[in-house]
Amino acid sequence: DAGVIQSPRHEVTEMGQEVTLRCKPISGHNSLFWYRQTMMRGLELLIYFNNNVPIDDSGMPEDRFSAKMPNASFSTLKIQPSEPRDSAVYFCASRPTGSTTGELFFGEGSRLTVL
Amino acid sequence: GENVEQHPSTLSVQEGDSAVIKCTYSDSASNYFPWYKQELGKGPQLIIDIRSNVGEKKDQRIAVTLNKTAKHFSLHITETQPEDSAVYFCAFSPGGSNYKLTFGKGTLLTVNP
Fold first, then answer.
1. Which of A89, B6, B8, B38 could serve as A109's disulfide partner, Cβ 3.0–4.6 Å?
2. Which residues of chain A have a CB within 8 Å of the CB of B100?
3. CB contact A47 to B (< 8 Å)
4. Residuewise pLDDT in 10s, chain B (113 residues)
């Protein structure tokens, strides 16, 4: 079975450029999460979608960050304009329909470097 | 609060020895405590979890213990093997949330052959 699929795996860009990260959750999972991982702050929840609707975006750091989930099989996290402090590994995770707190299935992450 | 302290930050053991990682949290409403393993270049993967109505759970060489009074929980790995080398994260559900997890800063475990 395919797991959570993220793209790109690596992105190097210059400050000020727009960055779009993509995620395909596991089929049948209706909860989707975007996390950011850095050495300093660890794993931080950015935004949580349930049934394609954003439920909690309190972790989105600034207006430069936005996330969408136009359908059950696709989500994007966009940073515009990007800054060097946005450099991190961004993970998408999904959880099965009907599950409350329970196993999160993480993708392999998108490593972003902003120069 | 929504903080969790995880110790140690690094742990090196000899193959066959046991490893213990401990996390302390502050939110008494928390009721779900998972542990995730992250290998290099991969996303975190759930290895074991425990809910607040039990004190201990075991799965082969891995066990988790929970002390709700003291607000701490621990991961125990017995008979460690080189493939256990990874970063381990504890997490908890702040405020008893049914979706949100707060993660610890991680423990880099190295098992030396």
1. A89
2. 45, 48, 56
3. no
4. 568 999 999 999 999 999 999 999 988 888 899 999 999 999 999 999 998 877 999 999 999 999 989 999 999 999 999 999 999 999 998 887 878 899 999 999 999 99
Whether residue B32 and residue A43 make contact (CB cut-off 8 A), yes or no, is no
A43 at B interface, C-beta within 8 A: yes
